[in-house]
Amino acid sequence: MSSSFIKVPAGGQKIIPGQAVPDNPIIPFIEGDGIGVDITPVMIKVIDAAVEKAYGGKKKIHWMEVYAGEKSTQLYGPDEWLPKETFDALKEYSVSIKGPMTTPVGGGIRSLNVALRQELDLYQCLRPVRYFKGVPSPLKDPTKTDMAIFRENTEDIYAGIEWQADSDGAVKVIKFLQDEMGVRKIRFPEHCGIGIKPVSVEGTSRLVRAAIRHAIDNDRKSVTLVHKGNIMKFTEGLFRDVGYKLAQTEFGAQPIDGGPWCSFKNPNTGREIVIKDAIADAFLQQILLRPAEYDVIACCNLNGDYISDALAAQVGGIGIAPGANISDKYACFEATHGTAPKYAGLDKVNPGSLILSAEMMLRHIGWREAAELVIKSMEAAIGDKQVTYDFARLMDGATELSCSAFGDAMIARM
Ligand SMILES: NC(=O)C1=CN([C@@H]2O[C@H](COP(=O)(O)OP(=O)(O)OC[C@H]3O[C@@H](n4cnc5c(N)ncnc54)[C@H](OP(=O)(O)O)[C@@H]3O)[C@@H](O)[C@H]2O)C=CC1
Ligand SMILES: O=C(O)CCC(=O)C(=O)O
Ligand SMILES: [Mg+2]
User: Fold this and answer.
1) Catalytic residue among 88, 281, 328, 329, which?
2) Which of the listed residues 31, 43, 157, 181 has the most CB atoms within 10 Å of its CB?
3) What distance separates the 2 farthest-apart alpha carbons in the chain?
4) How is the cofactor bound (predicted)?
């Protein structure tokens, strides 16, 4: 593959990590599969309008399309799902945004989303979950759900280290486990797929460190380590133990009543931050019944995937659930939801999740005034009951708007 399809927009400048963000940054975007074709242009239109309104033309994003997923196979060739020039651009321009990408179940290609996170070492998946006034919710008081999920984004069973049943690899790994590791517990070793779950001290430490720093910077009351460490002792249990240890060694947390919960004073505000843990199954009921008790959540990759969608449902669903994949150098923003294939091209779905992901991106580059306009206009559109189908079907007296009309309704309210 040597073709280049990326056109660098004239008049834009690179964002260079550690340097001031230029007023004319080039931001690469991946349109995404499925509903990507609907939500990505609406996101761009809304963000451009907010930036224009906030800065009167002094600042402007120069969007640069880069290709991955189905669109990339159409351009570069049938097996080119994530071309090298896309990776290179995401690194070179350091801040980017992407639509969702399809991953087939069972066979076929491995997740391009996971590949991107791993290749760019975007180890923090930050998914804030909070309530917007007027949004339909199954909870009596959805305002109590206000959490920031820090999901480890590069390891765990999600890393996709696994072998298909009956493949040479599966047979070999199972034989190794039985013959050399003394494993007797594989219930049906014949015709058995097998996977590996890596959870490391280093991977856990950097994620929990980011979660605790977020709690400090945002004056949150607690960080909860969510895990299934009673069952998977040396992976999820490690996650919990390393998290507690790090809170003590790096942040000076002291055990509460003999531990393992511990706490320290926020150096900025003097208020106490509690580090606690919860076993994942119980946590999933606690967030519904006692959401006010949770602030910042730190968890392994797979648990974070489940928790993200479950928490999103408490405050309106994945149509309005934003996210960011962050490393120490790069950031790639993306919605929590996927490609919702049955709605692709219908101009129907909620673009809110990708728009709010872009809002996080605006804050990330320090364009707070534009970010606030995005929030204000979304609240105003929802407050006026001008919403997409997902909210309209749950709200009395709402006007159902198309995806693009919802974007326009936001712009009209900036
Ligand atoms: N980061 C990424 O790129 C992700 C990619 N995926 C991939 O997406 C594909 C489809 O996955 P699937 O399990 O169907 O999950 P999706 O998140 O794509 O969709 C599930 C359901 O969520 C609702 N939904 C999703 N997006 C929106 C939106 N913007 N507005 C309103 N409602 C929305 C719809 O509910 P309803 O039917 O009730 O209207 C939809 O049917 C898979 O290949 C999966 O691997 C999945 C998650 C993340
Ligand atoms: O990569 C995928 O297809 C799914 C990813 C996903 O569900 C997520 O990151 O929340
Ligand atoms: Mg998911």
Assistant:
1) 281
2) 43
3) 70
4) Binds 1 Mg(2+) or Mn(2+) ion per subunit.
